[in-house]
Description:
Layout: E1 3-5, H1 13-23, E2 27-32, E3 35-38, E4 46-49, H2 56-66, E5 73-76, H3 84-101
Parallel strand pairs: 1-2, 2-5
Antiparallel strand pairs: 3-4
Amino acid sequence: xxxxWQPPHVLTDQACLNSLEDLVDKLTNLHVFQWRLTGFxxxxxxxxxxxxxxxxxxxxxxxxxxxxxxxxxxxLEFVRGDDPGQLRADWTTFKSVLSRLL
Length: 102
């Protein structure tokens, strides 16, 4: 069994990181996105897609934790507004995250 990991939107960044570290030996790929959950306890709560730039630091920590024991792939998904321009901006942010780790 291998894992395709994404940060659970109901957990803190530290809890997400802990879950990733627990799975790293069986990790295959990462699902990269930036969401914000609004109204967590509200029955009308919703998930709002945000620019990846807002989560660049958390993704640095996640990528660094995942960068142990083999090749990994990362997928950019859930782009704010399904906008190709936002996808380009998120890609630029993601490349910056990776370049700071090399």
